[in-house]
Design goal:
With about 150 residues, the protein is mostly beta strands. It has strands at about 1-5, 20-35, 40-50, 55-65, 75, 90-95, 105, 115-120, 130, 140-150.
Length: about 150
């Protein structure tokens, strides 16, 4: 579904476009370890809602019994390219099969993929890439839920 919010009625005296563009739908991405061109570890299927230049996204990534590749986790194939700034907030949630306190998503400027980072446990801690290390083998049939909001180009 897509269209304009507040698109009906008279716009007398208004200069320029005042409606907010609205769109929602589904998307299919790819969960990869080792970067945006890394090794595929399954399909990330989800739902998005875009209002104006903000895109809210929720996807589910099925976890295989063994992971393929190494390096940072990326979700590629997001429905929209990000803006030239890094306005993004995201949460990666799993159960006990992920050895990380809190994992957040970052979408680099002008990209259509998200990279995941382990947040530090303390104020002085160091941000580190969420790689294949915290992701445990032998978790077949389980999923990771990912929700984030980002500003689109």
């Amino acid at each position: 579904m897509s269209g304009y919010i507040n698109g009906a009625g008279s716009r007398s005296g208004v200069v320029g476009q005042t409606e907010i563009i609205y769109e929602e739908g589904t998307f299919t991405g790819d969960a990869k370890f080792g970067g945006s061109s890394g090794t595929s570890n399954g399909t990330a299927t989800g739902y998005y809602r875009k209002i104006g230049d903000l895109c809210w996204l929720r996807c589910v990534v099925p976890l295989a019994s063994t992971k393929a590749g190494s390096g940072s986790l990326f979700i590629t194939g997001l429905p929209f390219t990000s803006t030239s700034t890094t306005d993004c907030a995201g949460i990666f949630s799993t159960a006990d099969y992920c050895d990380a306190n809190r994992v957040d998503a970052v979408i680099p400027p002008n990209q259509a993929y998200a990279q995941f980072y382990i947040m530090p446990g303390s104020t002085g801690g160091t941000l580190s890439a969420f790689g294949d290390g915290p992701y445990q083998n032998g978790v077949s049939g389980k999923t990771a839920g990912i929700t984030f909001v980002y500003k689109t180009a």
